[in-house]
Amino acid sequence: MPSDDPYATFAERARTVLDRMAAACVSCGRSPAEVRLLPVTKFHPAAAAIQVARFGLPAVGENRVQEARDKRPLVDPGLRWELIGHLQSNKAKLAVQVFDRIQTVDSVKLAQFLDRASGELGKMLPILLQINAGDDPNKEGADVADSGQLLEAALACPNLVVEGLMTIAPLDSNPAVAEHCFVRLRETRDDLSARFGVKLPELSMGMSGDLEAAIRAGSTLVRVGTALFGERPAPVLSA
Questions:
Q1: CA 75, 81, 85: angle at the middle one, nearest 5?
Q2: Which positions ≥6 away from 173 have C-beta within 8 Å?
Q3: Mapping DSSP to helix (H, G, I), strand (E, B) and coil, where does residue 226 land?
Q4: Residue 4 — very low, low, confident or very high, per pLDDT cuts 50/70/90?
Q5: DSSP-assigned letters across all residues of 24-73
Q6: For 95-145, how does the pLDDT look when each residue is reduced to its tens digit (9 = 90+)?
Q7: Model confidence over 12-54: pLDDT tens digits?
Q8: Under a CB-based contact definition with an 8 Å cutoff, are residues 95 and 102 in contact?
């Protein structure tokens, strides 16, 4: 029976997800220590992030800059916040102030805006480059063909630290579509690492419904919301 204690419910769900991740790792010969869980708290109240911190997970993912800005002061200051939603250039400075890492750097222009804002704040900002490895017109991210140009520009930014790549798989009933996207991101990472002589250890890919395929393809970070918190409430849009 479901618990009346919201934290107990979250903890049970988190253990289930971690068990899925561990089983996926074992099935493809990887160590469970190689893949981390990033709970996605977007559209949920600050209480969700508080549960994450209490459980002992180190970070949460948010989609909106202002939402994270409002929630972060209410949560354990040791929790890290990562932006996993599309970022407009005009919000770059606020995003640098709010987030510990930005996963959705998808253009040279945005990288340069973030670099400038980070320099003004005296901050070295870890980032991931978002690549549209599934060629999905409905998803953000740089084209694979443009990934080298994007990486080159980001590496030239003195206040950015490029830690790896991120992608979102297309929505498709055929699981092979997501698997192809994930494999392509790993292959893109391997190609970029060889071409530019840099390590890009982080591969952020996989969510509640496809984390096993992502782990098989090499994911190091899965972003999970629904399996941890249930269906998220509809966002309240300001007038």
A1: 125
A2: none
A3: helix
A4: confident
A5: HHHHTT--GGG-EEEEB-TTS-HHHHHHHHHHT--EEEES-HHHHHHHGG
A6: 999 999 999 999 999 999 999 999 999 999 999 999 999 999 999 999 999
A7: 999 999 999 999 999 999 999 999 999 999 999 999 999 999 9
A8: yes
User: Which pLDDT score, from 0 to 100, does residue 1 have?
Assistant: 46
Amino acid in position 29 = G
Q: What is the pLDDT of residue 237?
A: 43
Contact between 63 and 42 under an 8 Å Cβ cutoff? The reply is yes
Q: What is the mean pLDDT of residues 209-236?
A: 89
Show Cβ contacts of residue 95 under 8 Å, excluding neighbours closer than 6 positions: 65, 83, 87, 102, 114, 117
Residues 150 and 108 sit within 8 Å (Cβ to Cβ): yes
Query: To which H or E segment does residue 82 belong?
Result: strand 80-83
Count Cα atoms within 13 angstroms, Cβ side, for 125: 38
In the chain, the amino acid numbered 112 is Q
> How many whole angstroms separate alpha carbon 160 and alpha carbon 111?
8
Place of tokens 């090499």: 218
3-state DSSP assignment of residue 137: coil
Tokens encoding 38: 């990033």
Per DSSP, 221 falls in state: E
The length of the chain in residues reads: 239
How far, in whole angstroms, is CA 219 from its chain's centroid? 11
